[in-house]
Specification:
Blueprint lengths: L2 H30 L5 H37 L9 H24 L7 H26 L5 H22 L1 H8 L18 E7 L18 H8 L2 E7 L5 H10 L3 H4 L15 H7 L3 E5 L17 E3 L12 H11 L12 H14 L5 E7 L14 H4 L12 H4 L8 H31 L6 E7 L19 H4 E7 L7 E8 L3 H8 L14 H5 L12 E6 L10 E6 L3 E6 L4 E6 L15 H17 L12 H9 L5
Helix pairs in contact: 1-2, 1-3, 1-5, 2-3, 3-4, 3-5, 3-11, 7-15, 12-15
């Protein structure tokens, strides 16, 4: 064969073998999977072989080019390697090696750089070379004539497919998931289980909402929801970072226990999530998150039938598990600036059609809005800084090192500009939340839906660390809004007792009547929500907070832990040895450190913190090393230096 024929033959050979492998994989996986909708079944039947064929064709082109170069250097002398049989053998063997390496690196739970995975990569390469050598020798000796090639193909694929599926088993368990058991819905006190809509407003301070005391009138939709809800005046996040707080909401565990205590950790499959519990009880589960920090790659998609994040193409959600994992493996999260986050408008454009499709059956949906997160860039109608003529005020620092230098201070007009833009982002997000709530009401499912609005953390504009979160444990960061609306189940009221985000998972299960739940560290506060607790002060929960931020600037302590009661907050910075104590009632701004004056209170809270620190289980998660693309994404969002 000449060079062009060699490349074309290798490409067509690779496409045929890979398509056949894709079809066999689809067949086996769907025999093992629970029943699926007919459209999804046939859609993946078409998509799986086509995408596998594309991969095979690309591999074949590369191999054909290599063989063409080899033929050029060896002249016209006949060679079994450049013959049709040799090209066929090398293509098949190469694809076997490729799929094995893919299975190890994309699916192996220990991660691609773990010693076991690297050893298996070496085994895969060696096996591919041995297989190619054996087949080429058989062809050269005339043992594998064209009439016998079909049997050889069948033998290789039949032997290879079980090995691949075994390697893929950890990911299969999560991708396929348990079938929804419609006949076994566990619910108490109602014919139909209540829907659950969890609205998460990222980076939103309580004091920016009218229902929590703001007089700026920027959040009419949230304020209206608060009037119809049980509003908790004191709710505390365990960590002022998005992914740790999100995982806590889903598991009811402290970040140190579920292991995701920074935005660079992955939630392990051993932890049972709220979505998994509800899916097992027959709920349709969908999450629509608006930042790459919550990308499903990091384990936050466990239990969700549909999980939409900024970088997921539309076909990804309807693909079979192998296509989805291959996409993750090949992209490893390509970073395009517009893919790092979704606007509230785009979130609504995805969550509302999904809710409409499942309005007649129990569903659990998460709508996550990221707009208030820095950088602050509200759309024109909500740019409050422009209204005050501050739009052109320049940043007083040239880089992040200068911004966080010891003793550095911000000009008042620039601080005002950033604050107004931040508030504008919240106002813009509020309008989209209003659209979502109006749609729920308009569908006629409001009475059947428990709506929860909560923030993962706040934002700091004080304490010498402006426009940021993650490294401090003051109230603008850890005191978060929480309200729960459930017409006919909960009477609107305000609750003064302190609750925590770790309590949210068991509480929501109790409110929708789902029996059973995960082994979590949070406590059910549904009694407070229902008003059956007479003495709210006796129901206060002591809140513990932590942070171990990746950014290490001179003015920012790398690690802090704190204990908060409704009256006091005690903060420790282990790396600096500093302790702080604040009287939250008399000093809500936390500017008067009373650690030296209130020794008895300080010692009591320190003792509580020591006990929690010693008894709270800590999980050493096996974390996959971040790729350069993932690192750049986190850096672009401000989470890495």
């Amino acid at each position: 064969m000449d060079a062009s024929s060699s490349v074309l033959f290798a490409a067509s050979t690779g496409a045929r073998w890979a398509a056949l492998f894709g079809f066999l994989e689809w067949t086996v996986l769907h025999l093992m999977a629970p029943p699926r909708p007919t459209g999804w079944l046939f859609g993946t039947l078409i998509a799986s072989p086509l995408i596998h064929a594309g991969v095979g064709a690309l591999f074949g082109v590369l191999l054909g080019c290599v063989l063409a170069l080899l033929r050029r250097f060896t002249g016209d002398r006949p060679s079994v390697l450049t013959s049709r049989g040799g090209v066929w053998a090398l293509t098949l063997a190469g694809l076997v090696g490729f799929y094995w390496i893919f299975a190890v690196n994309a699916l192996h739970p220990s991660g691609p750089l773990a010693p076991t995975a690297l050893a298996l990569d070496a085994v895969a390469l060696a096996a591919a070379l041995v297989l190619a050598f054996v087949i080429v020798c058989a062809i050269g000796r005339g043992l594998l004539r064209p009439g016998r090639q079909r049997w050889a193909i069948a033998a290789v694929l039949v032997l290879w497919l079980p090995i691949y599926l075994v390697a893929a088993r950890p990911a299969m368990k999560r991708a396929i998931g348990p079938p929804p058991r419609r006949a076994e819905l566990s619910h108490a006190g109602s014919v139909r289980p209540a829907n659950l809509l969890l609205i998460i407003i990222d980076t939103t301070r309580s004091d920016c909402l009218g229902c929590y005391g703001s007089t700026d009138g920027l959040t009419p939709a949230i304020d209206r929801l608060a009037e119809e809800s049980v509003l908790f005046e004191q709710c505390v996040t365990p960590e002022p970072l998005t992914r740790p707080a999100f995982c806590t909401m889903l598991t009811g565990l402290y970040p140190r226990t579920h292991g995701v205590d920074t935005n660079t950790k992955i939630l392990g499959e051993a932890f049972e999530t709220l979505a998994e519990l509800l899916r097992e009880r027959g709920y349709r589960t969908g999450a629509f998150v608006s930042t790459d920090v919550l990308n499903g790659f990091y384990g936050t998609d466990q239990g969700f039938e549909v999980y939409v994040s900024p970088v997921e193409p539309w076909w990804y959600l309807r693909s079979d598990f192998a296509i989805r994992r291959m996409y993750r493996s090949l992209t490893r999260r390509h970073v395009v600036e517009r893919y790092l986050e979704m606007s509230a408008e785009r979130v609504n454009g995805k969550v509302l059609p999904w809710i409409r499709r499942h309005a007649d059956e129990p569903f659990f949906a998460i709508a996550h809005y990221y707009d208030p997160h820095a950088p602050y860039a509200p759309p024109a109608p909500f740019d409050l800084a422009a209204r005050e003529g501050l739009a052109d005020v320049p940043a007083p620092y040239a880089n992040e090192e200068e911004r966080f230098a010891p003793g550095y201070d911000m000009p008042d007009d620039f601080v005002r500009k950033q604050w107004l833009r931040y508030q504008g982002e919240i106002a813009s997000m509020d309008g989209r939340i209003g659209e979502l709530l109006n749609e729920i009401d308009g569908m006629g499912i409001a009475d059947d839906t428990v709506v929860v609005l909560v923030a993962d953390h706040g934002e700091s504009f004080e304490h010498e660390y402006y426009f940021a979160h993650g490294s401090r444990l003051y109230d603008p960061l850890v005191h978060v809004p929480l309200m729960i609306r459930s017409p006919g189940r909960l009477a609107p009221r305000r609750v003064s007792a302190q609750v925590r985000l770790i309590d949210l998972c068991p509480t929501l299960l109790a409110l929708i009547g789902a029996e059973g739940g995960p082994a979590c560290q949070g406590e059910d506060f549904s009694g407070l929500a229902r008003g059956t607790v007479c003495d709210e002060s006796a129901a206060d929960r002591i809140a513990f907070c932590q942070t171990d931020f990746e950014i290490v600037w001179p003015v920012v302590p790398k690690e802090q832990i704190a204990v908060r009661t409704p009256a006091w907050k005690y903060i420790e910075s282990p790396t600096t040895g500093r302790v702080e104590l604040y009287d939250l009632a008399a000093d809500p701004a936390e500017v008067d450190d009373r650690a030296a004056q209130e020794v008895a209170v300080r010692d009591e809270l320190e003792s509580l913190l020591r006990e929690w620190d010693a008894t709270t289980e800590s999980t050493d998660v096996s974390v996959e090393s971040l790729t350069s693309q993932q690192t750049e994404a986190l850096r672009a969002l401000g989470y890495l230096r």
